[in-house]
Write a structure and sequence with these properties.
Elements lengths: L5 H4 L14 H16 L4 H8 L3 H14 L2 E3 L6 E3 L2 H7 L3 H20 L4 E6 L2 E7 L16 E2 L5 H9 L2 H12 L4 H6 L2 H14 L2 E8 L2 E9 L5 E10 L5 H25 L4
Antiparallel strand pairs: 1-2, 3-4, 3-8, 4-5, 6-7, 7-8
Length: 275
């Protein structure tokens, strides 16, 4: 699989076959916000030259952005700059969501190749939450809307993969947090010997596996996904019916293509400096 940036994968670009016309003023307004993010305090005239939009249009757009609270105008010299309100929008962008967007095309290609569905999940608020899934794409599944669902931390392949890739400090913090919650995960993490065994086996095998432990009649193998700082950000799995394959068969058939998928995904994450 090629190692490509978001833009090369189609993210950040506009389709040439859209049924709707451009909203020109919206595009120009976004160009102004982008330019102000780079220029800081600047006169409308200098801003007009920097983005190659006529001065009268820049003044009109700035008036709207000032009125909406995204741009501030300094009375002393008439210069403009971004306000903290824009930061409120950027604060709402979760890294987990960005990671899922980047993972999506790689998981789709994996499922096209092996047919079985695949999930990308991360550790969130004490649970393993599925951020993206190819269940809808796969002909080998009875599930469809699994995005947003949670899986067990110590019993699912996704959870085992993430736990095995945590540092000791991350693991201690995760166990301390989850142990204060109710449910199966809390009971499991309080069992020190169980957690130690799961992590040791997963690290020794080089992959995580769950044979009907998390979902009845469903098994999976999984690998952790690491970000640019090499810290674990999630995991990718391949799901199959327990009756269809043994764990040894699943590993023999699908571990290599899943490893290729994860390697390509990590390369794409490395290429995106904002993550």
């Amino acid at each position: 699989m090629p190692n490509c940036s978001l833009r090369e994968q189609g993210f950040g670009t506009i389709s040439q076959t859209r049924p709707y016309k451009d909203v020109r003023s919206l595009g120009r307004g976004l160009r102004i916000l982008e330019a102000l993010g780079e220029l800081g305090w600047v006169t409308p005239g200098a801003l007009s030259k920097a983005i190659d939009i006529d001065r009268s249009s820049v003044y009109r757009l700035l008036d709207t952005l000032v009125e909406l609270g995204y741009v501030s105008r300094r009375k002393e010299d008439g210069t403009v700059a971004l306000t903290p309100r824009l930061a409120q929008i950027s604060d709402g962008i979760r890294k987990d969501d960005i990671h899922a967007q980047i993972a999506a095309p790689f998981l789709r290609r994996l499922t096209e190749h092996i047919l079985w569905p695949s999930d990308f999940a991360s550790f969130d608020c004490g649970s393993i939450k599925i951020r993206f899934s190819t269940h809808r794409q796969s002909p080998m599944t009875i599930y469809r809307g699994v995005i947003g669902e949670t899986r067990l931390l110590v019993r699912s392949a996704l959870g085992k993969a993430i736990l095995s890739a945590m540092t000791e400090q991350e693991l201690e913090a995760a166990r301390d947090f989850v142990s204060k919650l109710a449910g199966q995960d809390a009971d499991d993490v309080r069992d020190t010997e169980l957690v130690r065994h799961v992590i040791q086996k997963t690290r020794a095998d080089g992959y995580a596996i769950s044979q009907g432990e998390s979902l009845d009649k469903i098994s999976a193998i999984a690998l952790p996904v690491r970000g640019p700082d090499r810290k674990v950000i999630g995991a990718v799995n391949v799901i199959y019916f327990t009756s269809a394959l043994t764990s040894a068969e699943a590993v023999r058939r699908y571990l290599e293509p899943m490893s290729t998928c994860v390697n390509a995904l990590e390369a794409a994450l490395d290429a995106e400096q904002f993550i």
